Structure formats: structure tokens, C-alpha cells
């Protein structure tokens, strides 16, 4: 990396040339607004220099060897307008037409730091927001009939921009009507309990006043932005074209990132992403307020945020970093999230108390299930829940005996299970594990495979093989790994390696998340001329993961050997749903030593699992609900009829309850608190129960083979065909 800095510093003369020619290039930018409405924001010399440095670094360092050319320019032109106005509610088609001369010139502008296009479009965006606020103030008091069967298209991302103001006004008339209907539901259900009050305002706002306030605040929010914010919008659009995980962080966003890395962030414990103007929940952090509460789920979209008893602020189309700042706050304070389960349903309000996510809540936990096969035989099955791949790097470096890590904790758990319960097999639960330490993914894999490669990491400098270097492996117990679409990164490396070594059976959703790339943060103030400047940082993708088979985990993720139907299949969760996603590909495979060949048994076990699911009434009901949910999710429009919307709200509530079985692996009561009664398995977690059946099948198949037994304990072989009878499970112990 130091070589790159020296290269940049030695190129200052080239980088600074843009200052000389900038004014002569200004005429290339279209001027769609009159002189009476000149932009209030304009690029500075520092902004232009940061742009040139960022672009040069991306071209030199990013994994994808992209070029600045006309094709890149055309993608950037479209991306920037859609980043500001993803649902096409503000710009008119004529606005884009007025800037069309820039469409193939943006690559040239980037090379010299010309930001006139970026700032001019942003200032026009502010004007268009102001125009809409004025329209809302006039239109909100019109008479709206909620008994007619009128519809509104909610997802407008694929629709063209309005041709003229008249067409846009009609779109907004329906939008206002939808807001009024939503407010009616919130007020009637008393879910929105807070209203901003002071000495001069004691009466709650009306539905109409709420709508006006919503857009007035929205305009105020964007009009308060400064150059750093515009730079983040534009440069993030530039970096996003390289891949969806690359972005520019202005100095404020960099401070937010530093706070998060120091683990002093107070919030709800959820990973969020920006999708077409909406803040969407990716996954919940184990032990965080949202996960403990249980109501917020992956795929939910946050449309408004309120502090305590204050009135909610709309966050649709608001940049993700600003939404995160609103959700983050002081420990023990309340934040209220207005959430929709889908674009078609009525919203609900979830109130959460901010708290720190404690490391203890991220730790691996285990318990033993006594799995009753028949009147004569009971299996002891170890279930280990791993919420993340963690490590006390400082403690491990100093060889502290109590240093925590995923692999050391799992080893202690399994050792205890073998010693105290003589377990017959292990189930590793990686559902909603978003990843973490690569080193720990490798170390955990090493507990179950012989010595050998685990993952290949490819960068522009070449391929490095990361492997398990112990003297064999600790456990040859029958192993099943349970995953879902929210299992990402390190989870995919572990489950992929277990599959590639033919060591265990991977079970779960149709595929895992597909996050097979590595990002790094480069702070721009490490460059000499930016040392004392508020220059921000760039996050970029510098490497890609590949399995020992040579197949990437990128985009496709890991495909389980046995697949369960899931609500997550119909949610836009996973790498493949992102724009500009880096492709799946393959590199040279590596030879591996396999000591346990699950492929010998998988066809039989898969057939047994399919038969069980076909006979399971509850699972068939769930499958039918999932199919109906999938049909509903594909709908682009919703009714503005109050009775139909109320029915849709009830459907959403029903599906939300049903989908909890996906993430219900940690026993909770109805209030979201951890269940102190550990004498019974959580009966709602149908996937876990079916996975225990699969583990029992695997144990039977391996024992009947007669050539493989557990390292640390002797086992009594199972009788043939013992798994066809009724089964019951009860907790035996917790580790």
C-alpha cells in the first residue's frame, strides 16, 4: 500500500493540472436552471483533488480492473440520478435530457476532478424537492375517497421518470392519498403513540399535518447538506459501479465508522442496507435489542424513525448513513421504527430501547438434545449456535488463557458434551451468522477436517491459500451445518469447506448470502497533501474468496445438499440482488484429503428428509404460505381502498408470525425475552427439528457403515431402520 501512496505523491503535478483547465471545461456541463436559481453549493479545490485521488486509487487497487471510458460514464450518469431519486418521484425526464450532453463525458471529468455536473444535479434535486413540498401543501387538503378501488405503484425503480409536471402531480396525488391512509391506520391502531409537544403545541397533528411535516422535514434535511455530503453521494455512485460494497465515506461517515469499530456504538443491533430508497434490514446481531425483542426481521423496511415520544421523521430516500445516525443514540433511550413487512402492507411501529451489543451475546452456545428414536434408543445430539465468528485478537496474540474465540469456545463446548453426555453427533447452527474473523472460520473448519487448504484468497497480486495447519482434526463425529440466506462471508467459508471435504451435510435455504469479497478502508489523510484535511476515506473491494474446489462463494453462495423452503427465498436478501454485483467465477481447484465421505450416504438421507417433509402437515402448511407470500412480493402496486389495505395488513402480520420460525432458534417468550425454561425445545423452530432428523439419519448411516467412530468416545452401533418411528426431543443440558 505504501507503494501506492508514493505513486500518488509522485504524480501531484499530473493531479493538479485539472485546476488550470477546470474553468475552460465548465461549458461542457449543461445548465438546466436559470440564473435566478444558481446552485447554492459549488465544488472547492479540495473537493476536486479528493476526487482525482480517489479515482486513481480505485483504478490501481480495486479487484475489478475497470476502465474509465464512455460505458463507465453512461452507467455513472444513470446511477447518480437514481441514487438521488431511486423511485423517480422528483426529477422529470426533461431534467435528464437537459444533462444528456454529459452522459459520455463524466469519465473525462473524473480524471481531472471536474465536479460541476455532480453539484449542478444536486442543486436541481433540491429545487425539485422544494417544488414537491409546495405541491403537497396545496394537494393534501383535497377530498380523497378511500372507498374507491384505486391503486398506486409503490416500486417505481423500473418505471421511467414523468414526462411533465402534470404526470408527476398525478403520481404525487396518489402518493399523498397513500400517506393519509397509512397515517389513519397508525392513529386508529394507536401504534404511533408519540407526538412532538411543547408549550405551544398540545394537540396531536392531523393526518394532513403529518404529511406536510414529513416533506418539509425532508427538504430541510437535504438543504442542510454541505459539500462533504454531495461528495459522498457522487463519489459513492462512482465507486458503486466498481461493485456494491465499495463507497466513499466523507469525514462524518468516517467518524461513524470509527465509532463502530471501537464497539462504543449504541443502537438496536441490526445490519442495514440501502435498497431503492428504502432502509432494509439485512440481519440482526445476536444479543442486540432488536434480536432480543423479536419483532424486527430481515427483509423489513424502515420508513420512519422517531426519538422517544417525538413525532417520526420519514427516512424513505434518505441516505443510509443519515438513517443510521438517527437510529443510533444514547444507551437506555427509546427509538421507534415505523416498519413495513413489504411494499404492499400497512406499517407498524416497533419501539426499542438502545443498548450495547455485548460480546457475551455473540459467543457460541451449545446444548444437548436427547433425541428419542424409539422405545429402546435415544441419541444425544449436540446443538451449537454460532451467531458470529469472533476473536480476542489482542488476548490471543499475548497467549492469554482466557482469550475468547469462536474455535476455542466451540472446542470447549464439544469436549464438555463428549465428556458429560457422550454425544452421538453435532449440529452447527449458522443461520443469520453474518461472518466475522476469517481466521476463526479457518480454525473452526480445522476442528472437523484433516490438515489442508480451507479457502483461497485472490487479489490483483495473485492467489493465497489459507489452510488448517494442525496435526489432523479433533472430531470425526457426524456433522450437520444449518444455514440460511443471511449466513454470509465467514459462515460461507466454513460451510463450503465442510461440503468440499465431504465432511458433513449442509442444510438450509436454497443458498447462502453470496458475500465472497473482501473490503478494506483507506483513509485519504494518509496521503501527504491531505494529511490535515477532512478528506474522508474510501472503502473498496481488494480480494475475493474461492473454495478449495476453485468455485467462488461470490453471488451464488453455498448451495445446501438438502434444501428447505423459506420465506427468505422471496426476499431481496443476498448478493445476487445487488446492482453492479461482482460475478461468480472459478479458479484452479486444490487437491484435498478426504477421510469421511458423506457422499456415500447423502442420496439416502436426502430421500428420507424429503419423505418426512411431504408427510409433515405443518411443513406443508408452511410451504403453501411461502408460495402465497412469494406471489404477493412480486406485486408492484397496492390498493388505496382502506378495507383492502386493512386485509393486507392482517396478512402481513400473519406472515410475520409464520416467518419467525426461520429465525426462532434462540428460545424466546412472546415478549422477546430469553426463555428461562430450557426443559423443552422451541417447537416453532421447525427447521431445527427437521435438521435433527437429518443428523440422526447421518448417525445411523455412518454407524451401519461400521468403519467410522468418534475419536473421543466409543459408540454403540444403531439398529437398522430405527429412524422410521416417532421422535421426541427434550433439552438435556446447556453449555
Number of helices: 22
Averaged pLDDT: 82
Number of domains: 2
| Major sheet details | 7 strands, mixed
Shape: globular
Strands across the major sheet, in which order?
18-15-14-11-10-9-20
The total strand number stands at 20
CATH fold-level assignment of the largest domain = 2-enoyl-CoA Hydratase, Chain A, domain 1
User: How much helicity do the residues have?
Assistant: 25-40%
Distance between the termini: 44 Å
Q: Class of the largest domain in CATH?
A: Alpha Beta
| Shape-level CATH architecture of the largest domain | Alpha-Beta Complex
Q: CATH-wise, what's the superfamily of the largest domain?
A: 2-enoyl-CoA Hydratase, Chain A, domain 1
Structural class: alpha+beta
Rg to the nearest angstrom? 28 Å
What percentage of the residues does DSSP assign to strands (E)? 15-25%
Low-confidence segments, given as residue ranges, are: 1-39, 191-202, 661-682, 706-734
